[in-house]
Amino acid sequence: MILSNLRLVLVIVLLVLLSYLYLSSPDGAKIDSRLVPDPIQKLNFSNLQTPSLDQIFNGNHSLVKNLPQDKIRTLIATGDIIPARSVNYQMTIKNNFLWSYEKTAGILQDADLTLVNLETPLFEGCLPTQQGMSFCGSAQNISGLQFAGVDIVSLANNHAGNYGLEGIDKTTKLLDQSGIKVTGSFGPTYMEVRGMKLAFLGYNEIGHKEPGISWAEDEKIKQETSEAKSKADIVVVTFHWGTEYVSQPTKRQKELAHLAVDSGADLIIGNHPHWIQPVEIYKDKIITYAHGNFIFDQMWSEKTREGVLGKYTFYSKQLIDVHFFPVLIDDFGQPHFLEGEEKKRILEEIKDASFKLAEDKD
């Protein structure tokens, strides 16, 4: 009983002492306001910014989960896809045109919009082959694109026109009939996601000018990008550019990317080198110079088997997160997601290349 009374007295003394200290302080007992959540401040998202290189590669993408989801829109862009040559051959002999996408479709389907660079015409009567540089793929490859949740394809590359305007027209009709939009042929393509309007433009700079393929001419890029910006909330410009099998962009790639941003582009998506290339932040806009390969048959080296899916997350009109998912291609055309040390290695390589690019000023 005595012990219980003693404990009660000690508690009372402690409370009196704390009250005295609080009242005797000129400012009262202050608590660091940063440690106490402010519900009003928590709802203020006006200061969201483009992620830095460190933020892109630090592995923390939790910001997106803490934001009102009704204002979130996601875009996934892949590396080059070629449902032709050995890829088309594999799916033909397997009689399974979903095969190439079976291990990656889950993430592709999960985005609001999925964009791919389609490096081949698709039409009925394309004969399966495992060689050559004039590409075509079976019309049945459309089912694979649909299965993967592809919403828009760019034809602005050096192989979409391998069968001339007829091949482009057949491909475009197949895609239209399947509900898949096309860019990189004639001007901007517009899509809407829950009230937000996005414009897509595609340009090729590899090979030579071809009818039906949008060529990367400076004035054309400026005019079309500026026009698209006046009509859309977000403008995405894709380029087929650069030098194959190198890890850094050329001077011309950087010029084109900066020109597009200066003209109103919000995001630049690059491909063609068949190697992953770095990310640049220019005037608070993200430029991914190359995503590597995605559905391709270049099994002759590790780097040509590698690629990344880039998940680009917008909060309202602001790009707030970039998340790369490394993949490795098996069996001449089926990528799978990498984990562990291999995943870490590829992300570190992109990070290092991106910081090197930032340091190397022309």
UniProtKB/TrEMBL annotation:
Database matches in Pfam families: PGA_cap
Transmembrane residue ranges: none
InterPro entries: Aspartic_peptidase_AS (IPR001969), Capsule_synth_CapA (IPR019079), CW_Biosynth-Accessory (IPR052169), Metallo-depent_PP-like (IPR029052)
GO BP terms: proteolysis
Protein name, per record: SH3 type 3 domain protein
SUPFAM superfamilies: Metallo-dependent phosphatases
Family: Belongs to the CapA family.
Domain Capsule synthesis protein CapA: 74-298
GO terms, molecular function: aspartic-type endopeptidase activity
Matching Gene3D superfamilies: 3.60.21.10
